[in-house]
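User: Hi! I'm working on a homework problem where we have to compare a predicted structure to a textbook description. Could you give me the structure for the chain below?
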Amino acid sequence: MTLAALRTDGKRALAAALAGLERDPDSETSQALLDAAWREPRAHVVGVTGPPGVGKSSLCAAMVAAWRRAGRTVGVIAVDPSSRTSGGALLGDRVRIAHDGSDEGSFVRSMAARDRLGGLADQTVAAMVVMRALFDRVLIETVGVGQSETDVAGVADTVLFCVQPGSGDSLQFMKAGIVEIPHLVVVTKADMGAPAERARADVAGALSLATAGGSDWAVKVLAASSRSGAGMDRLMDALEAHRDYLSGDGRLAVARHHQGEGWVAQSLRDRFGRDGIARLGRLGLDLSLRPGAQPFQRLRELGAVLERP
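Assistant: Happy to help. Predicted structure tokens:
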């Protein structure tokens, strides 16, 4: 399946292509599709993370609806807990995120987290790269595993962290593994009033104690309700503001290049272990990407070296 065919054949063709990527990611067809999609990015990719039960799915559904009202096409990757029996996605897209299945401008794909601890599925990167070439916006909702859920920073342009009023999430947020990854923080269930405002103030206070990490982007802390719609306009405006920020001074290209290098390193580590990485070093090879290079080709090159006797 080619990228051009996916652009003309609609959601059923995309579903089949993503199934092919999950089934045989190393096939010639899959790799050709990934190479083409990497060279033609289109979407702003937003990752939504946070503890289980915080209301991520409801918020994502409200975001999809807002983008569709604005005329944006949207692709969603919903990473679900895995079935112990089948290993597949436990919840499924129809339950996870409410959407109009007949709407050709939106598409939801569920993926099973399996045994990954970072909140993402094994093939999230591949699915994101393909969907990024097809839609105006791509939304990734992570499975919700708490403090270890930081992998989303390696696939999203903008990371949105969700906090629930009265849950103690603001204290968890202060732990460095979480506080360093979001560009936006949203307190869900803003219609709760005072508890929501208190949680927002707590998170804002936690951020004031954290280091800026060298970025000149000031993390925004908002409150929104997917049920009443309160604060949703401000949230959508904040997402656009971060997209505009990334567009300046080549920031988006630099961030995606670093992500690509991270994917190369992680994929080789998963496949060949630390010994494989060390062997590359002894051969005088590193994991860097040349400017403008794409990671899937680099993975094939380095993988072929490590597979030699």
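For your comparison, note the following. Strands lie at 44-49, 74-80, 106-112, 137-141, 158-163, 184-187, 220-223. Residues 272 and 307 are 9 Å apart (CA to CA). Good luck with the assignment!
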